[in-house]
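Cont'd.
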Amino acid sequence: MTRAPAAMSEFVFATAQYGSGDWDSAPLLPANIIDSVARYTSIAVAPTGATAPLATPLALHFPLLYLTGHLPVRFSDNERRNLSEFLRRGGLLFVDDHNHDVDGVFHKSATEELTRVAGPLHDLPNDHPLYRCFFKFDGPPTTSQELNGWGDNLVHKHLQAVMAGDRISVLYSSKDYSSEWDYHPESKRFQSVDNTRFGVNIVVYALTA
Amino acid sequence: MFGAAILPAAPVTARRASDTELQAALPRWTMAQRGDPLAVTLDRAPSRAQLAWLVALRQAGHQVHWSGTLPSIAITAEPMANPRGSELLALATPSGSTAMLRDAVGTIDSLTTGANGAQVIVPRDALAENGRDSLRAIIGGGNAMGASEPPPATVRPLLVVGAAGWEAKFTVAALEESGWRVYARLMVAPGVFVGGAPASLDTGTVAAVIALDTTVASLGSAISHFVRGGGGLVLAGNAANAGNVAELAPGRPGTRVPAVTLVSDTLGLASAGWVPVDALKPDAEIVQRRGPGIAIAARRVGAGRVLQVGYDETWRWRMAGGPGSAAQHRAWWAGIVSAIAYAPSASDSAPTASQFLAAPRAEVTQALGEPRASPLTMRGRWPDPRWLLAAIFLLLLVEWSSRRTRGLR
Amino acid sequence: MSRGPRTEITTALQRSRGWLAFGVVVRAVIWAAATGALFVALVALTDLFIPIPIGARRALLAVDAFIAAGVFGFLMWRDRGAAELPRVALWIEERVPALRFALVTELESGGAARFVAPGAAQPWPGMARRGALRVVAFPVAALIAAAVGLMVLPAGSVARAASPRSGDSVIRTALARVGVSVNRLDPLALEITPPAYARRESSRVDDPAAVRALPGSRITFVGRGAASGVRARVTAGDRSTLVQARQAGDQWRIELTASATPTAVALSDGLHARVVDLEPERDAPPAVSLRAPVRDSVLALPRGTIALSAQATDDIALAEAHFEVIVSAGEGETFTFRTLTLGARTINAPSATIVAALSLDAAKLHPGDVLHIRAIATDGNVFSGPGVGTSDTRVLRIARPGEADSVAITPAAPPDTNQSALSERMLIQLTVALKARRAGLDRRTLLTESHSVATDQARLRRTVGDLVFARLGGEPSGEERTPDQTDARGDTLRDLLARADRATNQSIQTLDFDGGETPVVAVNAPLLEAYNAMWDAGGALEQGDLEGALPHMRAALAAIERSRAAERVYLRGRAPDVVVDVARARLAGTEHGSSSVRTPRLPVDSARDALASRLSSILARAVVSPATLADSLLLLRVEALSDQPEFASALGDAADALRKGQGERATTALVRARRALAGPIIVRRSIAGWSGAGQ
């Protein structure tokens, strides 16, 4: 079958909007991931992304949220409340440090806020089902940003996560996938290896776990 | 006998007792002469043992009649097909009645019934171990009625088929969180699935199949054998369009009714849109209407049951609904599946009868006949000796008075 | 009676009155004291046989005081005549008949000596003194007897009767029963000493089953008897430790520190056992509210002072509060951050207001900088904390010059340089690949392929040129479109920039490419560099000089990257949508995923089911050994405190009822516990045709 079954509900890639920082610092990433999902799967996917303000209940309409930025992350009470409800009802929050700097204010402030909302972050084992739910990986793929001289100049071997039982509730990355995937999907044809395949795994995991 | 020869036969009143006096009256009535009229006023339901005693007295030759305001109420109990082993009680009562559920150790819950009664789902663990046969409902004025103890049901896993998406994810989540074991076969790409499938599709391995879209066509004709053999099938959204289930479905999916609320509104079950059931088959039943359309329809096919559910975006209700919507979503899906899942009884034994009547007025009427409006009387009986004694004393008194007053001026 | 002149008789009578009054008062006091002491002794004696609850003892103490006061008052009222001279005179004359009412007559006559002379010879003045001393003798004896009685009774019982207080059950001396082993765990008292930061008094609890205490509190179990063999197993979560008792006089003591998790303490003296639950009292972190600034804002200039104000409250006591200001500077991928701390103060109260002033001048801010301001407060919990509370964050941004004076700024579309960067990167890859294959190619083929790359490079160069000249307000580059024609090099870089500056009315003298750049210069200088580098690269490729072309191509790429960074300005607004042609992309990928299994979810009730199973097994074991049922329930209660408070409460009631021998109440509580775990009862106010379906 080359056509997706006529499912009523499309997957919409949503970017979380929060008030304190540059939430939209990777504007091309949603289109790139949407393109990859369409390219490799038969999942019904909306052709454009959406913005989900965390301060409003609109965020609850998108069970997978992507959050990134460079600046400090300080949630308001509304944002914290909605995010807590979002996670409690079964949503998955994917957070990526656009600075890829564990000493940077995004990492410190975001981890503080996430710990407060969802609980402490722990290293995700590299044999977690996330890494084999569609494409097979031995762990989080390395990005070309990690050793570019900016940030912490480290190759992080693990992603971090807050678990709800056996399920990932919050997925946190210090590997700067935001820079790695922030390009127009038309440019994919120039790449010998598609570096967005791990994004497909995240989407498939969110839709099936 | 002298009195009977001289005096004409006088009317005789029946032995009477109210429902509260019945227990004490029954042994006395048992000692009464054959043919004595016995009248009982029942405003509260008697126990099963008391009713049996009255029937025995009747069969012994007594005229047993009853009257009173015994209301027309009934209660049934059946095991639910769910992993928690809940029991489903149905109370048929007048609208607005207040019912209290009790067992041997105390009150379980109280409720107000609706237009034709109420249904109560009681977790098995909520009942006391030694109070199972004393489960009863008390409705206004202390009427007590009971339910028979149903044997528990065995449940097998469910199979959910559909394309990977939010509806599939959260439907599986709701069922697993309710305690069901679920085989989730979710299509991600052609030939690529997340989840597993049972070795075979039959009632020995699967209790029900939940089809979320036309992906169910991948099961082929096995689904038809499964349903006819007793398995349950839920067709959500437009799943009934799949070729292998169209003949099983209660109807045909119509044109989708879109959402009518703003995205920022709090969502309920249907406010995300739904697919009506059109072209209802003659043997299908309407379970739920929504406006002019049919939202849920059911049909029996062979030994199995098929439920066509028009809601295809229930996940929005769970995620964006009001407080408690996640639990409501979970309970809703558990109820949908329980309605059709194959769940045979764990044992062959029949339910044991409760000490209380399940349908008091109906059972009393069946046993003792229609109620009488007035107390019963009968002719040809001896007068009460006490009256005769009283009369004799009165006469003696009159005679003595006359002697004493004799000669007085 | 009129007062007569003061005579010797009158003086003597007054002295006598003084002695008699003294005697009356002292007697009343001593009788009151003796009565009180005797009552206390009676209560203490009763307590030896029957333990009197603390409430009853306090009530009896009040009764005792009332009785003593009543005795005092009664005696004072009865002997009030000792304060009146005539009564005193009568009292003396009653005991000295020879006076023949001379004293009274003396008083009434006003001191006529001729009536008293016979009486003056009688030895009566010392009688009052002797009488006063005599009347106190018996009460003193009674008081001494009561005191002896109190000394004979056990000190603990006397203390319990005289000063009842919580936790004094351990000092009660009960008469031991022959043949019954002494239970060193009964009576049991518990002392709770909260941590210093809480500033609370210590408290004591008698016969504890479940107590609440702040984490860090010192918990002391106190019992009577030898400490040898008395120990406690302390279980908190998965950790379990054993603590031995120590001797303190005739008591044993076990000291623990309360933890932040529910703890079960199983006491044992070798023969007896009992369990006490320690429930942590939650110490909430402070609540902080930022009063000023009131909302986020954009500031036109980084000048002036901003007043900061915040209110902090804590359930016990605050320790410290301050403002945290994070200054973010930079854009694109390069940001710098620094943190300022303002208004820090030490607090020792449940609530406080902190104020500070943020000087924008002193903070050395620049246009585009962003300030994140919040207030932070900590409490004094040194055991499991400190608890930290934070306020909402206010974001203040310094506007860039020339920027629209509005918070909502709609950004421009992403620059076309994105495509340029990737295209240039592709060209570099093609050139590197061609260079790698060169050894196997002839000159003609090499030139053909190199020429092809040069054509793409030229096309890209024209695109960049169009970008630059379009932004400068000029015509498109005007380059001939055929690569064979020689393009005029155009103006020098400086001339182009000068023209750009004039077009935007900016001063030409602010040419500084490293900082303080005008937006026009910041964006276009790198593009111009890229344009020139591409020109040079194209020329080298035309001649097949791959090694000569690559450095220029890489320089062009770097310049384009800088240009992209310069344009990545943080703007609050909606990012532009890129619409993906899903249909065209569908399953166009060359790689394929593979099927996988999924991990099933746990039922939401799995933890509850585990507790229900534990309760069932405890009840089943209780049939064999009912004595341990209460302790087993208390152990289960500790585990359920966090997640199932209703269930834990029912277990506590059941354990308490079992300890007191109230079987029916225990049964009701256990049924309530089962039903708390069983889950909700669902009621539908109608009968559905298909049971369970529909809503």
